[in-house]
TrEMBL record:
<dbReference type="Pfam" id="PF00929">
    <property type="entry name" value="RNase_T"/>
</dbReference>
<feature type="domain" description="Exonuclease">
    <location>
        <begin position="8"/>
        <end position="181"/>
    </location>
</feature>
<dbReference type="InterPro" id="IPR012337">
    <property type="entry name" value="RNaseH-like_sf"/>
</dbReference>
<keyword id="KW-0378">Hydrolase</keyword>
<dbReference type="GO" id="GO:0045004">
    <property type="term" value="P:DNA replication proofreading"/>
</dbReference>
<dbReference type="GO" id="GO:0005829">
    <property type="term" value="C:cytosol"/>
</dbReference>
<protein>
    <submittedName>
        <fullName>Exonuclease</fullName>
    </submittedName>
</protein>
<dbReference type="InterPro" id="IPR036397">
    <property type="entry name" value="RNaseH_sf"/>
</dbReference>
<keyword id="KW-0269">Exonuclease</keyword>
<keyword id="KW-0540">Nuclease</keyword>
<dbReference type="InterPro" id="IPR013520">
    <property type="entry name" value="Ribonucl_H"/>
</dbReference>
<dbReference type="GO" id="GO:0008408">
    <property type="term" value="F:3'-5' exonuclease activity"/>
</dbReference>
<dbReference type="GO" id="GO:0003676">
    <property type="term" value="F:nucleic acid binding"/>
</dbReference>
């Protein structure tokens, strides 16, 4: 009798020529798996890896200065569609994919390449699980939280695909040992719930610290994460009442 497939989530990190396809392309992909163990806890699984990718266009100096991948490094590498599918949709199938600020990876790792896989955004989930953390970048979380078992050198250099995926995998492991896969996916599908005001006179304050008039000013903000965070705070002040009506004035009435 065949054993059921294990629960595994694959962490993905990309290095690219820029911020948005199709104008920009992938020049490296890295991955690291996190698996549910027999004792019910999640741990890193396997060695992970990375592949260079020919992005089909020159790498701008601006992005070369971040990841240090040069045109000559990828000149003989395979193209994105030749590399992506076996990494993004391996057998046995992963229960989800994950990345830090996953919306970036999702632009390049399209549904056709992932076979419609769900994504976990470790940035959004860190905001939910560890709101008191002073910062939420992948590397800040690494040095602030100091995840148990991380090999320092294996997570270097930063801004290369495998080391970044390796670091993210430790954040994901710790998140999965605090919350369910379903909960992390659900949080990842919503806008980011920011614990503190990002700009303005109240910058750096927790949402609960600002007055109603200041809160109203954020309810129509153009940034979806800020609107969501302000509405969440308003709902808290109302005891969990409904939010999302047509205007900030309506919401406060």
């Amino acid at each position: 009798m065949a054993l059921p497939p294990r629960s595994i989530i694959r962490v993905i990190d990309l290095e690219t020529t820029g911020q948005a396809p199709p104008a920009h392309g992938v020049c490296e992909i890295g991955w690291q798996d996190v698996a549910l163990q027999p004792d019910g806890r999640w741990e890193l699984e396997g060695e992970g890896g990375s592949r260079l990718v020919n992005p089909g266009r020159p790498i701008p100096p601006l992005t070369m200065a971040i990841h240090h991948i040069r045109d000559e490094d990828v000149a003989d590498a395979p193209g994105w569609h030749d590399v992506a599918r076996p990494i993004l949709d391996p057998w046995p199938r992963r229960v989800a994919l994950a990345a830090h600020r996953a919306s970036f990876e999702e632009q390049f790792c399209t549904s056709s390449l992932t076979r419609g896989a769900d994504w976990i955004c470790t940035y959004k989930c860190a905001l939910r699980l560890w709101p008191g953390t002073p910062g939420f970048s992948n590397q800040f979380l690494r040095y602030f939280r100091k995840p148990e078992g991380m090999e320092h050198e294996r997570g270097l250099p930063a801004h290369r695909a495998f080391p970044d995926a390796y670091v993210t995998a430790f954040h994901l492991r710790d998140m999965l040992n605090e919350a369910s896969v379903a909960q992390l996916i659900a949080w990842s599908k919503e806008p980011a719930l920011e614990p503190r005001v990002r700009y303005g006179p109240d910058r750096g304050k927790e949402w609960c610290e600002i007055d109603d008039d200041a809160l109203a000013g954020f309810l129509d903000d153009r940034d979806a994460d800020i609107r969501f965070s302000a509405e969440h705070e308003l709902a808290r002040r109302r005891g969990g009442g409904a939010v999302g009506r047509s205007s900030s004035m309506d919401l406060l009435l």
